[in-house]
Specification:
12 helices, Beta-lactamase, single chain, 2 domains, about 400 residues, alpha+beta, Peptidoglycan synthesis regulatory factor (PBP3), Domain 2, globular
Length: about 400
């Protein structure tokens, strides 16, 4: 049977239009990392939002490169974890070894046998990028720099930083065996930012040690000159060139801008600033105001409770600016679940959409455990129901 040519053309046009219709079955991201304009003049860089881990811009972000003193993002992470776990205190006294005092490069000129508090050591590392202070703290926490570096590499793997390897705790005298990537440094920085006390050190512009006799000036000039800057670490050597993990926060959005191998210190800061500017200008976070929406109850069969009010798990999500009030949500929940229910058990999902396109999806989980009901408990419940009739 022949199809008339006009009818064939009409059918073809309809089919072509159908193929071009947007599909709402797949997750439609609000983030466009493929920006035609090159934002940085460095070899590698990445812009990440801290609460979600969403990458907003990247350029050669997985290239393994030397990172100089940006190494100390991991050193500071292990120090902050030791402080927050109670293993050490900011008031503890650190005695400087001959080896720690022998470090060159950026330093606070620690003397063998000199004693300094953990608090002051952290100032020396975060503000002045003290190589000697980093080694002194590594020895204080792990007994030796070598043992501390083992922890650094183990922690990197735990954070899924598979393109990172450290041979020392400060980035001094790097070899080809000491490297990382912009993406991995962003992940380490993201973890470090979870320790809020780090901002006590990384936001210092000028301070002093040794009862005011030794002045400190932050190597991160963005702390003074960039709106919202709150960290994190600079680095430079002849091989690594100029590097930085720069962080800034505005309107509840915390950004991480990592630049590796910039040709000059000015281009390091301008590249980091350009990525931060791009992020703040184009994106916002849908946070607790969206995620704390009430969730419908889920029925429980055979439990000590007949219903449970689930909670939405996970962090917020990134939106292009101006879309926050357009977000709609729908739930895909189990109609009922059998007891026992464990805390954190997945009960369904919440889907966030803008004009029908999915922009995010989060698990809906039990906020507490519900055990199975016993025969005695069932009898008491029936008796109570009978009495209240």
């Amino acid at each position: 049977m022949k199809i008339p040519i006009k009818k064939f053309i009409c059918m073809a046009l309809i089919f072509s239009a159908f193929l071009q219709m947007p599909s709402f079955a797949e997750n439609a991201t609000q983030v466009d990392t493929d920006v035609s304009t090159q934002l940085i003049s460095a070899k590698s860089g990445i812009l990440m939002e801290a609460s979600t881990g969403e990458v907003l811009y990247e350029q050669n972000a997985d290239e393994k490169l030397q990172i100089a003193s940006v190494t100390k993002t991991m050193t500071m992470l292990l120090i902050m974890e030791a402080i927050d776990s109670g293993k050490i205190s900011v008031n503890d006294t650190v005695t400087v070894s001959d080896y720690a005092a022998s470090m060159g490069g950026s330093q606070v000129f620690l003397e063998p046998g000199e004693q300094m508090s953990v608090d002051d050591m952290m100032k020396a590392i975060a503000v002045a990028s003290g190589n000697d202070a980093a080694v002194a703290m590594a020895e204080f926490i792990s007994g030796s720099e070598g043992a501390f570096v083992e922890k650094m590499n183990k922690r990197a793997l735990e954070l899924n930083c598979t393109n990172t390897h450290f041979i020392n705790c400060n980035g001094l005298d790097e070899t080809e065996e000491h490297y990382s990537t912009a993406r991995d440094i962003a992940l380490i920085s993201k973890e470090l930012l979870k320790h809020e006390k780090i901002f006590d050190y990384t936001t210092i512009w000028m301070d002093s040690l040794r009862n005011g006799s030794f002045g400190l000036s932050n190597t991160n000039k963005l702390i003074r000159f960039y709106n919202g800057a709150n960290g994190l670490k600079t680095g430079s050597t002849s091989t690594a060139k100029y590097c930085i993990s720069a962080t800034a926060k505005r309107n509840d959005m915390q950004l991480i801008s990592v630049v590796i191998c910039a040709p000059s210190t000015a281009e390091r800061f301008s590249s980091a600033s350009a990525m931060l500017d791009y992020g703040f200008a184009n994106y916002e976070v849908a946070g607790d105001d969206v995620l704390k929406t009430s969730v419908p109850y889920v029925n429980i069969i055979g439990g000590t409770e007949s219903q449970i009010a689930p909670k939405i798990s996970g962090n917020g999500f990134i939106l292009k600016k101006g879309n926050l009030d357009k977000v709609e949500q729908s739930f895909e929940l189990e109609p009922s679940v059998n007891a026992p229910v464990t805390e954190g058990q997945k009960l369904g999902e919440v889907i966030y959409t803008i004009e029908g396109a999915e922009v995010a999806r989060r698990d809906v989980c039990a906020d507490h455990s519900v055990p199975k009901i016993t025969i005695l408990q069932m009898f008491v419940r029936c008796l109570s129901d009978w009495i209240t009739l």
